[in-house]
Every structure is written in C-alpha cells, then in structure tokens.
Amino acid sequence: DNRELLYHSSNMSRGLRLWREAVDLNDRLLKQGPSWRAYVSRAITEYQLTADPQKVLHWLDMIPEMKRDEPRAAVMRFRVAMLRRDAVQAERALGVVSSDYIEDAQFTGPRALLLAEAREISDHRESAVNQWRLAEEACRARLKTLPENATARALLAIAVAGQKRMAEARELADSVTPSRFTGAHLAHAYVLIGDRTQAIARLREGLS
Questions:
Q1: How many C-beta atoms lie closer than 10 Å to residue 61's C-beta?
Q2: What is the reported pTM?
Q3: Torsions phi, psi of 36, nearest 5?
Q4: 3-state secondary structure of 101
C-alpha cells in the first residue's frame, strides 16, 4: 500500500544519503498516521543531519513503549547516549536487546562491541577489554559461518584493535574492501589503530 511504499522509499533515500528526501518521505508517511518505524527513520536522519541529541530523542520518544525494544530503536538510543558521553544510559539502552548478535539495518554486529565502546568512555578499561573479547569471539563465529562477510571482518578489526593488538587489527582492516557497509567500521578500526589518514580515506571511500 501507499504507506509501505513511502516507508521503503524513505529507506532507499537514506541508503543513498539523500537525507532531505528521506525526511520528506517520512513526513508524508506520518501525515497518514503514526508509525514507529517512521519515527525511528526520522531519528536516524536527524542523527545524520544534526547529531543533536535532543532532536533525535524527540522522534525516539514518540515510539510506543511496546516497540522500544526493537533493535533499531535501542541502537539509536545508544547512539544518542554516546553523543552525550553518558555510558550508563548507553548500556541501559542496549539492555532491552536480547540477542548477542544484533541483525538490523541500523546495526549488524555483536552487542558486546557496542558495550565495549560504552565502557571505554566510562574509563572501565578492564571491563571494556572483556567486552572487546566477547565481540571478537562473536565476529569469528560469524566468519566461520560466512567467511566472506566483509562487515563481520571489519568489526573484527575493531574488536582486535580495542584489545591493543594493533598489527593484527591493521592486517584485518587492510583485507576488507571499503564500501557503504564497511567504510565507517574500517574508519573506526583505523582510528583505534592510530592511523587517522587511513581512517579518513576509508570513510571517504565508503561514502563514494
């Protein structure tokens, strides 16, 4: 129906980074009635356009309580908390996600990787390392099943770099072809490795 068409069209626009077009399509959808998926979509576009926690939360707070445990909604609340450097709220946001390996268009990867990021900003280094290890195990398990999965390999590079095994992390990152699915992850890995030149290059390649 028309609502589904508008929703999927907005997702396609977002995937192409046509943020204003995505906003317009979402707004047209919401004029026809409430939609928790559209609220999340607007939160994502607001995050990309402004990175303003209050503006992103405006949309997330409109999601009905029964849908707030959806992975994409939880991940967006996590990202808002990280913008605010609020590790406690970041972890709380992920508490509603039951799966150890999140599979969603907004984020696909180990929940432990996100928890590690939160614990790093709270200066709980030992606890963060434990989460990086869990993330590494999850990525390696995924690669045993799907050895050509570039996203899992890029996330593995992040998890290994989080444990300060920089040479291994670089080798992993160098083995992944940048794309719109891996570019941001590779940039993250190179930032942790300490190579900002490669981080910027991979991010640009992922956006091209």
A1: 11
A2: 0.88
A3: -65, -35
A4: strand
